[in-house]
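Inner membrane protein YibH: structure tokens wanted.
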Amino acid sequence: MILVLVAAWLGFLSLLVRFGILKSWTRWMKLSPLVMFLACQIFLLIPMSFGAPSGRAVVMKNTIQIIPSVSGMVIDVPIESEVELHKGQVLFTIDPAPYQAEVNRLEAALKETQQAAKMLPSDLAAANAAVLQTEAALISANKQAESLKVLVDAADASVAKQKAQAELAKAEFGRAKELAASKAMTEAELEANERNLAAAKAGLEEAKAKRQQAQLALDSQIDGVNTIVIQAEEALQIAQARRVKAKLALESTINGEDADVAQIQAQLELAKIKLSWTSVEAPTTGFVVNVSLQPGAMVLAEKSEVLSFVDESTQVIGAQIDQIHLRHIEVGQPAEVIFKLYPGKVFEAQVDKVIRASPSGQVAPSGFALESFEISPDPFWVRLAIKDKSLSFPPGAVGTVAIYTNHYKVSHIFRQLILRMENWLNYCRAD
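Answer:
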């Protein structure tokens, strides 16, 4: 711009000399371009750098990495690259059959658990009845244990009685043999006495066996407690444990719902959520840069991105401004942006935010001392917003921004001229 002004001044002086207004090139006329150049530097270029700073600009949009939440085989990809999509539109579908089967299984399990929960009151009643029954059995066992000594005594008396009867039958059989030998008793009477002796011996053996059984029952003890009583006590403890379990199951609730039912319901809700995740939808308005995912591909949950989605709902114009020119920039100040993609067009904007930080000033957490590095005045980012909200620019579009601060406002005119000169040069300039 300064060179253009100097050239215009020289052209003006040449016209004055050509038309005779000035007779010839004087010394001050020859020095005037240098004076004008220095004056423009001091009174135009330097104030313009602070009052209307400029810098390179780029369009930035949020990119969402689409990572599937469930694993499976892709069965449908109904989208194309760089085609505008709306929020909720399906990007791709994972085979839902395994997840639908899990939902069906849990729904069946929920019905079964709900039915079992309805039976809990009757289970508790049955457990109470079983406790009462085993308590009665314990009382009976105690009485039976107390009567075992009486049974042994009765068995001893029975053995003595059977022994006496056996000895009497033996004596009668001996006399019968003598009588039969002298022909005083018939053979039939002898056989009858022999049968009586055998019956008496059998009765004696039976009485001995019963006596032994009664004695074993009396002697069957653990730590002084008869095993009949111990068995009854164990049965009572089992019944009481079952009653406690039934009572706890009846009282075990979460927000008024049976615990088992609540657990199955939670599993069912999670299964339904996973089933819904098989249909991956657009998170907002935007487009996919490159659709390389195809049906038949296997995707793994939360492993790596399969699509890169550009969010069209957010658009940021980022400009890099040198630190030395940043001092007067404030939020809300007007700005103008030109893009190489749209030569000849100037877009109105305003300062949205000044990011006063650069990567060189960030210290990462580390157990080591700071390493030495080359320090340079990296430019800071200034975020701009286009005033016309309906305009949408492709991410990565590059251009130039001019910010008009509240200082040195006379320099704004020259910055606008320079910006428009650059804008028209975009028709033929690539860099």
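Residues 1-50 form one domain. The radius of gyration is 54 Å.

Cheers.
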